[in-house]
Amino acid sequence: MTSSETGRASDWDPTAPETFDSSHEVYTDLRRRCPVPWSDAFGGFWAATRYADVVRVARDSGTFSTAVQNVVPHVPRAQRRPPLHFDPPEHGVYRAPMDRVLRRAVVRRLEPAFAAAARELLEPLLARGGGDYAREFALPYAAQCFALFLGLPVEQVLEIRRIGVEYSFAIQEMDRARVMKASDELYAIALAIVEERRARPRDPDEDLVSSLLRASGDPARPIPYELVVATVRQTVVAGIGAPHAVLGSAAVHLSRDPDLQDRLRADPALLPAAIEELLRLYAPYRVFARTATRDVELGGRTVRAGEAITMIFPSANRDEAVFADADRLDLERRPNRHLAFGRGAHRCPGAAMARLELAAALGELLAGTSRVEPGGEVEMFNWLEFGPRSAPLHLVPRS
Questions:
Q1: DSSP string covering 188-207, please?
Q2: How much is the pTM?
Q3: Which end of the chain is least crowded, N or C, by CB within 10 Å?
């Protein structure tokens, strides 16, 4: 909806060019001035910027449905893709086989392989004294970790990520033909993955695709085969994109805070607390949306039935009403109930794996260097992913 259709003027411009820090300044202003702003961009949508409002939207599936429009911009689709496109209780049918294989007790077996992948990818950057951390490390590392988890060739996962980036830019540009082309390519890859696993099944308590295929044969609540494919299609895109984005942000933050680097090198036991703060400060998504099922008041605004509202996690995670000194990384922050993985029924199923990926990558970065420094201008992704597309760093190897 445009302002002429709604009678509303835009309160902000989410399409404005961004630097590494600029969006946080915008969100701070919105939380104080207009915590639930309206924008004409991407067909028109509301945005929840405060912690309490984001939690309310995420938890109340009856009022804020994910089944209609669940991202901004609205993505044309041939079919719904579980679990994101389904509300509870139907949503739980698809989450159960995913949660089974994404528990920390299951994915922690991958820790040594993640660390080995991080060391291997860091070697050429250390030898050169630096490079583009986002492009040369975070991207291939996120792909390699997901390839290890899903049991796929890393080249195939990198191709998925390439198409996924094309898909996200086509969405932002609202280019329907490019969106559909990229989506069809991703579906074709997902179908090939599922067909291969159906022919050569693996342990369904450790393998995501095999777990979904087992659920497709559940006599009580069978998952249709085409929705097994759609679930894999949904998972592979998010499972690579989010770690890629947040890892780049984390490395840039470390490069600008030498005291934090020194503390973490001196006491690696502090790394888990640092990771939670980095997740809070740089949550990688802000486009996940819900559609109001009825007229509802939120943050002093009236959201009409059928209107979309995004949950701006990077803003909610710096809400001064919840987090003292919210822009500062505080290793002693207790509690730290950040929303980097969402909240409610659609909380990210890959949270444990993401934490393992970050711990391995940042642990190896700190162990292999005596100093990490900024190396040039950071280039941000577009609206759909919140993090650096390019992050030049200088790396001083540890002697």
A1: HHHHHHHHHHHHS---TTT-
A2: 0.93
A3: C
